[in-house]
Amino acid sequence: MPIDPDFPRNHKVLGKVQHADGEHFYFAWGPGKAAEATEDENVKAAYEARGEKLEPLGVHGTMVAVDWDSCVADGACLESCPVQVFQWYRTEKDIPAKDVINETWTGSGETAKDDKKDYTDKAQVVREYDCIWCMACVSVCPPQAIVVDQSNLEFHEKAAGTFSEALSKSAQPPPHGDHKQSPF
Length: 184
Ligand code: SF4
Prior knowledge:
The chain is an alpha+beta fold and 184 residues long.
């Protein structure tokens, strides 16, 4: 089951995942569900080896969003991203995925495809704010766990309490072909 493209409408904010720079953060959305990760033999075996419970995790990120219940730690997204939006979260802090929300992250984790800790690792959008909207990660993800949608900035800002209806209405569409500017 690929990521729900309407996840911000169909989910609630689980928490804010803070960057150590004190400025940036991303949101996680839930509830999660049983999906590809629950059925994947590599993922199941890795959780068993750790003695950790394989439980619903939800979606990490809003404009660049990875459904952690679909993510099977393939790593194609890390390899495809030209600006290292993603890291393997366990290579920065080797903790259960449920606890990621409560931690602060520096982005010092590994960003190469094959450098995950094991198949319980997940692609974390630790530098969501650096996305240049190339869409490369979306098409390479085997379980289609990723949605990249700049217009989801509205949901991010509403969750952050920084959304302005007036600014949103007066915002002009970007010049033709200009999709590379980060809006946040
Ligand atoms: S859309 Fe491009 S820049 Fe953004 S996270 Fe995906 S691969 Fe990286």
